[in-house]
Amino acid sequence: MAASNFDTNAQGELWIACEQIARSPGHPFYARLNQVLRTEGFDRQIEALCAPHYKAGGRPALAAGVYVRMLLAGYFEGLDSQRAIAWRCADSLALREFLGIALSERTPDHSSLTRIRQRLPLEVHEQMFALVLAIARKHKLLRGKTLLIDATTLEANAAMRSIVRRDTGENWTQYIKRLAQAEGIEDPTAEDVARYDQKRADKKVGNEAWHSPSDPEARIAKMKDGRTHLAYKAEHAVDLDSGLIVAAAIEPAGSSDAQTLPSRLVQAQVNLLRAGSEQQVEAAVADKGYHKIETLDWAREHGVRTYLPEKKQRGRRDWSKYTSRQRRAHQLNRRRTKSKCGRRLLRRRGELVERSFAHVCETGGGRRAWVRGTENVAKYHLLRTLAFNLGVILRAVCAVGKPKVLQDQLKGVISTMISMLRAAAALIQRIITPHRPIPRAFLSGFIRHCMLMKGRTTPSSTGC
Fold first, then answer.
1. d(CA 357, CA 234)
2. pLDDT tens-digit readout, 54-89
3. pTM (2 decimals)?
4. Statement: 123-157+222-313+320-398 belongs to CATH 1.10.540
5. From CA 271, how far away is CA 64, in angstroms rounded?
6. Whole-number Å distance between alpha carbons of 230 and 155
7. Per residue in 320-374, pLDDT tens?
């Protein structure tokens, strides 16, 4: 009787011919992505950028192209940690084909990803990001005239229970115990400390008094779901016309949005120049958190129109401490924001920027950082935004931007064709019977079905 495949005592074959090894035909999505990257010479350009940071001789290191491709696979598969990415690449035949690793070779582990990330500086990751923008420009997707800017919080790789006092170095338990002793509780037990902490009125913690020894650059902040965590701030500048992320950066959590806005505009302009575009940034759209008179004056001085709503404040603004030029910049921004064009741009900002955060942070697995330090988090986040831009390019070229979407593409086309046939039959029936008028909503629905067949759900937007 033949041994079962799950019998651990069964002796395997000593030699296996190469033609007998199982080979994957490859995933259709990764095959198309490979085709785009190969056409543009992506791996060759990546390795040319990283060559100065590799030493000649010694043990062969992980190729920079494989390092980037593994992190791309992590984004497209929705994996957040390097361990999960390394395991998935070792387990999947399709990802092996995407990485160009034969079955007789071992896939890189998570420590290899860490070493390459530490070896390559942040500037190299920014140049990699600009390479994808250059590919988008070749496909006539990148414009960069109007930028939509917003920020979100990323959970840091550090726990709140590990924070200590900056002045004394005490952890939370030692700090509460000292307060309890000051209140007259001699030699308090753990139960006494917990009871005292529960009844205590002032329980707020701030970045001025507390920090994390494991990740000193992380800051205490409130997350989107209302929880308090050590976190970083991720900021995106998105192109209005294409939805591409033109600039992405990591800032300390709690940093002022108005102070980081000029940095994002300058970074976006640098990335456009690196991508080979001569387009100047002409307009910036953001929410009321970015509104500051000094920022408005800086943008006007550099030829950038701003669409920043004002914060509600009590009473009248004191203009004695501002110059006439700053007051003029404030008036022009208010006029643009309240115009019809400004309201439309603000609606588009909420749609496109939040979409980038949803793909990069939620479905792309980037909401929590598994590395520590602003530079390491920025490297990791840049490669995820790079993968997001590749998805936008593939969506324009192949009408698909994620692997799971391609699996259901045929089903969606068939259902759309059936819906169009039903709508056409109903339209013909209503034309035959002239006494029954054709409702306007019915005609708009029929037109929408026709647009879906062409891959367009909404008309393309342009700047004002």
1. 9
2. 887 767 788 899 999 999 999 999 999 999 999 999
3. 0.81
4. no
5. 21
6. 6
7. 899 999 999 999 999 999 999 999 999 999 899 999 999 999 999 999 999 999 9
